[in-house]
Design brief:
alpha/beta, 18% strand, globular
Length: 283
């Protein structure tokens, strides 16, 4: 089930002809009004929650001993975090969690929400405890916000998903920007098995020929671009990725698929069609 047509039309009209440099301002207007936030489902992603609870074999523990012999928490990153439900979920599992949003007002709302509702996300492991929660305002594709990340802008876990049709993540981006998306993800994730990119793939059901946003995203689009970040891939006239023209293997700094599955639970917008995938960055 996709976002209702009337909600999608209202959002598109709100952002119509708005230049990229004013996108954050437009988001803030919606957050300021507070009466039309259709992307906020009021809970953390059920699929992410289940993965953190049940797939530690894939995602590992939230704390580890680094190369210097110091034990520290792994850092988790949620771009396009909105009110921050998924950020609080990561912190409850012991990660030092960071949320990024292009809207300064959204970040203010997220900080206030965290103060009032952190108790709604109980600690999962008393021995590990709760991680820190940090919200940052910034453009995902810019490096301006990176200085606010303690220890540098490298994360052990990144969660990529948005049911919002206009935020800056894969379903909202024009196909021409997909190489840049994959390259940016690669630059933010640590190398090797210590880092995981978690993608909740949406919308997998949509015919690419119908355009977007949101653009149809079959699994081969994730695999193609994540295997070759920064490289332009070929699409046919209907918007289908031409897999036969993709270079075999994985490019330098590319991602390797660890596991892909259909989640038992997800937000209503993707029920029955969402897919969950976990990737590591090739070292």
């Amino acid at each position: 089930m996709a976002m209702p047509v009337e909600e999608r039309a209202r959002l598109l009209e709100h952002f119509k002809d708005v230049p990229q440099e004013r996108i954050g301002e437009q988001w803030s207007k919606l957050w300021e009004a507070g009466d039309f936030l259709p992307w906020d489902r009021g809970i953390a992603s059920p699929s992410l929650s289940d993965a953190l609870n049940d797939r530690r074999d894939l995602l590992g523990d939230s704390a580890f001993v680094d190369e210097s012999g110091t034990q520290r928490r792994r850092k988790a990153f949620v771009p396009g975090c909105g009110k921050g439900h998924d950020v609080l979920l990561f912190a409850s599992h012991g990660f030092d969690a960071y949320g990024l949003d292009i809207s300064e007002k959204a970040v203010q709302v997220a900080r206030d929400f965290a103060k009032a509702h952190l108790k709604d996300y109980p600690v999962k492991d008393a021995a590990v405890g709760v991680g820190t929660v940090t919200f940052i305002s910034g453009d995902f594709f810019s490096k301006d916000w990176e200085k606010e990340v303690k220890g540098g802008p490298k994360f052990e876990v990144i969660f990529d998903y948005t049911i919002n049709i206009l935020k800056q993540f894969l379903c909202a981006l024009s196909p021409s920007m997909r190489p840049e998306w994959a390259e940016r993800m690669s630059s933010l994730l640590v190398e090797g098995k210590g880092g995981n990119l978690i993608c909740l793939e949406f919308p997998t059901y949509k015919d690419p020929a119908t355009g977007g946003p949101p653009h149809g995203l079959p699994g081969k689009v994730y695999k193609g671009h994540l295997s070759h970040p920064g490289k332009k891939l070929s699409y046919d006239s209907d918007g289908n990725l031409e897999e036969e023209k993709i270079e075999p293997g994985v490019s330098k700094n590319g991602f390797v698929l660890v596991k892909r599955w259909k989640p038992e639970r997800t937000h209503k917008a993707g029920e029955g069609t969402d897919m969950m995938s976990v990737w590591t960055r090739d070292s």
